[in-house]
Amino acid sequence: MTFEELPLNEKTKRALKDAGYTNPTPIQEQAIPVVLEGKDFIGQSKTGTGKTASYSLPMIEKVDASKKKVQAIVLCPTRELAVQVADEVRKFLKYQEGIKTIAVYGGQSIETQIKMLKKGVQIVIGTPGRIMDHMRRKTLKLDHVKMCVLDEADEMLNMGFEEDIETILKDVPEERQTVLFSATMNKRIMGITKKYLKNPKKVKIQAEELTVNEIEQISISIKEAMKSETLMRLIQVYQPQKAIVFCNTKKRVDDLIEVLKQNRFKAEALHGDIKQTMRERIMKRMRNGEFQILVATDVVARGIDIQDVEFVLNYDVPQEEEYYVHRIGRTGRNGNSGKAFTFVVGKEKSKLQSIKKYSNAKIKEGKIPTLSEINKIKNKVAIQKIQKVIDEKEFANEDLLKQLLENNKIEEVAKALITLLYGKPKEEKNEITIKTKTGENVKLFFNLGRKDNMKVKDFVGSIAANCGIQGGDIGKINILDKFSFVEVPGELVEDVIKGMKGKQIKGRDCNVEIAQH
Hints:
By secondary structure, the protein is an alpha/beta fold. Helices cover about 40% and strands about 15% of the residues.
């Protein structure tokens, strides 16, 4: 089933298409038709299964835009969820005129909310406590409500909102539709449903589980500034023909694409601002192997149908647990093996634990590839390419070889040809003699500055990733117009100069030397 097949108005379908929604999730597929019919509904499903669209799409269909009265309310346990739901509803209302929604919750000025309510809104989404405040002040009237939604009902009861919920439901007209979603169904939830729902349709959705046998899942603890360079290292080490990188926002996608292209990686972007015709063209080009890396948002994750993706990377930890399932499910298909990496910054470790619990996934800890590992891989790839030519015996210009062998040994000819193909070996001597006390900082000169759009995090991230030292070991950084100075401990100077030799920062060639005082 697709959203096109559901009995939704064309403006809603257009908004869904713009947002990248193509196929409904299991809970959406079962809930939307029932709720559209006006029946009461109970959905047992976890966060991240797409339940917001399950009730908000039918809710939008039922609202009369010509009436500036509150016609639907959604009760949420937290202000974070209320804001999230309101944002989702506004996304679906993109092409609808006259339908207004507001999120009301504690911690935000109640006067601001009152002004918005006085202007006339049809959909109110909020926490029970704040909705009760507005009811007491007579700034929120529920006598025209046709639909009431209890989202994450079990959480609301756990937080002590049972009495508030009952008070609100008693104030809503009896001839209404009531929809309830809950991850669990305990006696207290059942008590609410028996008392306030009429012959509800019940649907239970199991959390989607991963087929993990063919997907190796790895998390990497990382600093934000090191992400782009670590991604490029992973691509160099694992050499995937087709890789998908997921980011949480369109801006992240666009910024990362710029960095990848500056560093000569073949990459394309896919997000909600890219029109459907262009998306299809990009997908076709990837299937044909015309570029290596697709950088995308979750908005388009479901529409990515490429069978032989070997490598998926979560550049950002997904915002919903189910997104993780959809993201890494792009690899390891049809019996093929795949790798799925997730970058984890600081406190995001708790999010990763939630993902493990939700998806039953075994995610092992990985490390940032070192420069020596990358060089070994490059050598291995070079050997494989040369060996393939030898095995296939499709040699070109053998007369040239004969002429070279007249005056040179075969080993010398082979070394010269490899040098031409892969460049001269980097000199590792680069001995640096510094008169400094242990722990004393040395100022290094970098040929990049403000005109190159350099920031402190760019230097820290690049030095940490390329030189194997901790960001905290880097001292004062002074960025000027055309160049910059970076202080590092004396014992790390050689590591930094060697590690940054031949490297780029934000796609610009980097030159590092000891500053002349």
